[in-house]
């Protein structure tokens, strides 16, 4: 698939997935199970520094995980938008309205290279680790920089069960993830 046809396919799929999320009712029990999955991963792997995100409306809600991780003294690195890139801050529960008009973490500068795991949002993930984001490339650029630093951090996309798909269109700049997590399962990909 050429990058042009992949870009067109991704745009159509984004519209479909966003519509599905808009129609999806909030599910507190699923949010709790998802946060438990993330917490268990951190416990099993003795994670001290995790990168994550503040969930936007419609995204898988990991708020309980963020609270739990802070209670466990896990350093949380959360993104803020700075032009075309993400900058990372150590999250202490403070937020501010960012460049794109939504709540972002406030805190002192953090270095993503310190993260032992990166939990990142996605609209969908396929069974070989292709991740479909919202289309601005923020996370692709961040993950490319992380890979260039020789980081060994696992990159885990957080999605709803129905957003784990067989195949996604992909472009040359798209960064693959190591795994996907939903409220009901953890799926690892060969890379």
TrEMBL record:
InterPro entries: FTHF_cligase, FTHF_cligase-like_sf, NagB/RpiA_transferase-like. Pfam families: 5-FTHF_cyc-lig (PF01812). Coiled coil: none annotated. Gene3D superfamilies: NagB/RpiA/CoA transferase-like (3.40.50.10420). The keyword Coiled coil does not apply. One of its GO terms (molecular function) is 5-formyltetrahydrofolate cyclo-ligase activity. Keywords: ATP-binding, Nucleotide-binding. GO terms for biological process: folic acid-containing compound biosynthetic process; tetrahydrofolate interconversion. SUPFAM superfamilies: NagB/RpiA/CoA transferase-like. Belongs to the 5-formyltetrahydrofolate cyclo-ligase family. NCBIfam families: MTHFS_bact. This is Unannotated protein.
């Amino acid at each position: 698939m050429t990058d042009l046809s992949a870009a067109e396919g991704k745009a159509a799929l984004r519209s479909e997935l966003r519509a599905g999320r808009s129609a999806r009712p909030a599910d507190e029990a699923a949010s709790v199970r998802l946060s438990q999955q993330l917490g268990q991963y951190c416990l099993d792997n003795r994670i001290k520094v995790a990168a994550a995100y503040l969930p936007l409306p419609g995204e898988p809600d990991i708020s309980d995980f963020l609270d739990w991780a802070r209670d466990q003294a896990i350093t949380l690195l959360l993104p803020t938008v700075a032009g075309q890139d993400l900058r990372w801050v150590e999250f202490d529960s403070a937020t501010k309205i960012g460049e794109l008009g939504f709540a972002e973490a406030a805190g002192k500068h953090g270095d993503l290279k310190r993260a032992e795991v990166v939990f990142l949002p996605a609209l969908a993930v396929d069974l070989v680790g292709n991740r479909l984001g919202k289309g601005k490339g923020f996370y692709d650029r961040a993950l490319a920089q992380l890979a260039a630093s020789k980081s060994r951090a696992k990159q885990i996309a957080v999605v709803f069960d129905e957003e784990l798909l067989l195949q996604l269109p992909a472009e040359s700049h798209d960064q693959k993830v190591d795994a996907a997590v939903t409220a009901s399962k953890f799926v690892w990909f060969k890379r």
